[in-house]
Specification:
Layout (H helix, E strand, L loop, with lengths): L1 H17 L21 H6 L1 H12 L3 E5 L2 E6 L4 H6 L4 E2 H8 L14 H12 L3 H19 L7 E3 L2 H23 L2 H18 L10 H13 L6 H25 L9 H6 L11 H31 L5 H15 L5 H5 L2 H12 L9 E3 L3 E3 L5 E3 L3 E4 L2 H4 L2 H4 L38 H18 E5 L8 E3 L2 E3 L5 E5 L4
Parallel strand pairs: 2-8
Antiparallel strand pairs: 1-2, 3-5, 4-12, 5-8, 6-7, 9-12, 10-11
Length: about 500
């Protein structure tokens, strides 16, 4: 009896401690039944309907309790406001809690986020014309390796895995140069790196019901006892990167001012003031590259897989896309350029629509980094509060996309003359404002080039002729696991 009473007492104390303490003039807290648990299960297993019901009854913003923590939700009306208030919010503060990369890297990548953003903006998106021919060559290589000639119909499984390897080949070339990226072990490591990490980091934070630090401690245990899922990948990268770095250092000594820099990220890192050619920190170089690789491949590979399914499952649009692609191909006479692909308005519109239909309910969660943030309607949220954007409310806005906003309308952006990489109030797939994804121009170019060459070379269809449903995991979606059927186009 004493033990039972002690347990009940401790439970009451725990619930009291974990009960939400809202600041003055906060957004309304949605009523809930179970203490501590709050709205967690509704959020995880019925995200769209749950949030829509809250919006209808309480408007925005509003507060919910997930994993024992008060979280503020904004939708179409306040997402643009939060996006513009970049000095008050930081999306990486949220990422650090759920994907603590500092456990597996020798340095904390979140400490130099501005450097990573600058690298992506200037050295990747800012040099697309320089990379264009290399990217095409890598796509030709990937098509031959992963899909082949397909003179007879061929079923390709694990489309997402294929797309990750395609993306990995492209990113490897840009990151470490052609010499190092030609090795298959490097490309494979890049492609599966995120998957190996996710087995540890995608553990639902149920221990956060007790305390967030407990969740962080548990997911860090493998690393604290010496097991790191990327150790083998780092060895591969350093093994292939080291000879390139040593050769470049030697060439700089010999050629001096006549040395010609390579167009890749590795060269950019070697030009930084903190790079010491007499004592190269290869672990640090690898960690810098791994952060870009993880961020780039996870998002681009997934988008590429979704795009292939969107194209393969909608045969009614094949002819128009093929006509545009073949017309440009004939006019260019084999000398296809960045300017040419940017003129392909139907291809670009199709990709923008595919990205709009990505399906994630939450795209850019943020944390308040200042003492507080006050919304334009007067509601205030405190420092540290997570603010989730119900992005679907923007991406399927009826005022912007019509009453059939959830329909797939691939050519609706042709007349609007907006590219797939252009962000606006209702197209928030890449975030928005000053902190919009700096790699979006590169990612969109990858999607364009790949689909362009697929259209020219193959007929692609789904197994049953329809667009398969994506896999929903909480508020996030992943590409279908179905196969696609590829068949080489017959010469006409």
């Amino acid at each position: 009896m004493f033990a039972l009473l002690s347990f009940i007492f401790l439970l009451i104390v725990f619930i009291y401690i974990k009960s939400p303490r809202l600041s003055e003039n906060e957004p309304p807290l949605i009523p809930y039944t179970i203490p501590v648990i709050g709205h967690t299960f509704s959020y995880l297993f019925n995200t769209e309907n749950f949030i829509k019901k809250c919006l209808k009854e309480y408007g925005e913003p509003f507060n919910i309790i997930i994993f024992g923590k008060v979280t503020t939700v904004v939708a179409q009306k306040y997402i643009p406001e939060v996006t513009k208030a970049h000095e008050n919010f930081d999306s990486f503060e949220v990422l650090k809690e759920f994907v603590p990369l500092h456990f597996i890297l020798d340095y904390n990548p979140f400490d130099i986020i501005d450097f990573h953003a600058k690298t992506t903006r200037e050295q990747i998106s800012g040099k697309l014309s320089l990379y264009f021919d290399k990217m095409q060559e890598d796509i030709f290589y990937s098509l031959d390796k992963w899909i082949g000639e397909c003179n007879e119909p061929r079923s390709i499984k694990s489309i997402w895995n294929v797309c990750n390897h395609v993306t990995a080949k492209l990113i490897a070339n840009i990151c470490i140069g052609e010499e190092a990226s030609q090795h298959e072990d490097v490309v494979h490591s890049f492609a599966v790196l995120s998957h190996d990490m996710n087995r540890f980091f995608f553990l639902p934070p149920f221990l956060s019901f007790i305390h967030q630090k407990l969740h962080e401690f548990v997911i860090s245990l493998p690393f604290l006892i010496g097991f790191n899922p990327i150790t083998k990948h780092k060895k591969v990268l350093i093994n292939r990167m080291k000879p390139v770095v040593e050769n470049r250092i030697q060439q700089k000594k010999i050629l001096g001012d006549s040395y010609k820099q390579s167009d890749d990220i590795l060269e950019f890192y070697m030009s930084q003031p903190n790079f010491d050619p007499s004592n190269v920190n290869y672990n640090y170089l690898a960690d810098l590259l791994f952060f870009l690789i993880v961020v780039g491949i996870v998002t681009t590979g997934r988008s590429l897989a979704n795009l292939l399914f969107d194209y393969a499952g909608r045969p009614e649009y094949w002819d128009e896309l093929y006509e545009e692609a073949s017309t440009f191909n004939e006019e260019c006479n084999g000398k296809f350029t960045l300017n040419d692909i940017n003129k392909m308005s139907k291809l670009d519109s199709f990709i923008r629509e595919s990205l709009r239909h990505t399906g994630d309910m939450i795209i850019v969660p943020r944390a308040v980094t200042t003492d507080h943030y006050t919304f334009s309607n007067g509601y205030t949220v405190p420092k540290g509060r997570h603010v989730y954007d119900f992005s679907e409310d923007c991406l399927f806005s009826e005022s912007q996309y019509g009453p059939d906003s959830k329909s797939f309308k691939p050519f609706q952006f042709v007349s609007q003359n907006v590219s797939a990489s252009k962000v606006d109030r209702t197209y928030v797939i890449f975030g928005g404002g000053r902190h919009a994804c700096p790699g979006r121009f590169y990612a969109v170019l990858v999607l364009k080039l790949f689909l362009y060459h697929v259209i020219l070379k193959y007929h692609v269809r789904t197994e049953n002729g329809n667009t398969p449903k994506k896999l929903m995991v909480g508020p996030f979606v992943f590409p279908s696991k179905e196969s696609l059927i590829f068949e080489r186009r017959k010469e006409t």
